[in-house]
Amino acid sequence: MADITRRLGWRHLRSTPTAHIRHHRDGKLVHDGPGLGFWFRPLTAALSEVPVEDRELAMTFRARTADFQDISVQATVTYRIGDPALAAARLDFSVDPDTGAWRGAPLEHLGTLLTETAQQHALAVLARTSLSAALVDGVAAVRDRIAAGLGTEPRLPAIGLEVVAVRVMALRPEAEVERALRTPARELIQQEADRATYERRAVAVERERAIAENELASQIELARREERLVEQRGANTRREAEEGATADQVRAQAEAARTVKLAEAEAARSVALARAEAQATREVGEARAEAQAAWLRVHGDADVAMLHALTGTRLAENLPRIDSVTLSPDVLTGLLARLGSGPRG
């Protein structure tokens, strides 16, 4: 909307670069172009403001497919006014010289024209398409058909209108039909999810089985190694016992040999000692025999009184030692009587 300022019966208009202004005064074109600013008298001026920027028109309409199913179409048409002079001549883009607002609704008229034209071409293509095909490939088909139809529509160039782009966002059936169509897909997805779950469980079970087998194999291998270790320890123990027995046998044999040698040496020494003792005994016996013989020869020639004296001497030598002698009166009396009698002549 143009910006209009009042000054003492005059008006000043200031527009934007995206608004094309046409100013007629007394039927003559005085100003023509975008982004203008000028003074004018409201009583003699006729003003038109035509937007020249790209504008988007969102539309939603219902159609029916070949299998008699209702479907809603959501689309957007981008357009621009390429010939502002032609558009201002064919549509009412006049503005109030006091407020700068449009006196009519030209953009609504353009929107209605574009919507009805697009809807006509969309209905034509969807009427020959089934619902399932429309939901699968209908977006591109409807877009292409609307773009082609708007491009060949003679009314649009006649009012200076250019279609820039066409977009179709969605084709959607009724809620009940959409739920019915979603059910098989949901069932299929659920089946795929269940199958994936079962496969995941199967894989988990298989992995657990593999893990259990690996653990069992590890335990078997450990048991086998422990068995080998026990066998090796037994072999080592037997070898140590055999070596110990051999060493004990060697020590016993050495000890026995040494004992035998010691016994032999002891026996030889005992024999020698016995021989020496026997020889000494024989020699002592012989010496005693010779002394006895000499003694007998000496005593054989001696006097009897001398022999008695020698016998008393020897007897006195062999008597025990007497420290003191106690004589009783009886013994002393008898002894004195024996001494007093004396030897008799």
Structure, described:
With 345 residues, the chain is of the alpha+beta class. Helix content is 60%, strand content 20%. The chain contains seven helices and nine strands. The chain has helices at 84-90, 106-126, 131-151, 155-158, 175-300, 304-318, 329-341; strands at residues 3-7, 10-14, 19-25, 28-34, 37-40, 45-51, 55-64, 70-81, 161-173. A three-stranded antiparallel sheet has the order 1-2-5, with no helix packed on it. The protein has a three-stranded antiparallel sheet with strand order 4-3-6, with helices on one face. Helix 2 packs across helix 3 (131-151). The chain is rod-shaped. The chain starts with a strand and ends with a helix.
Number of helices: 7
Give unreliable regions as ranges: none
End-to-end Cα distance = 214 Å
Helix content: 55-70%
Features:
alpha+beta, three-stranded antiparallel β-sheet, 345 residues, 60% helix
Can you lay out the helices and strands and say which pair or pack?
Blueprint (H helix, E strand, L loop, with lengths): L2 E5 L2 E5 L4 E7 L2 E7 L2 E4 L4 E7 L3 E10 L5 E12 L2 H7 L15 H21 L4 H21 L3 H4 L2 E13 L1 H126 L3 H15 L10 H13 L4
Antiparallel strand pairs: 1-2, 2-5, 3-4, 3-6, 7-8, 8-9
Helix pairs in contact: 2-3
At a glance:
This protein has 345 residues and is α+β, with helices and mostly antiparallel strands. The chain is built from 7 helices and 9 strands. Strands 1-2-5 form a 3-stranded antiparallel beta sheet, with no helix packed on it.
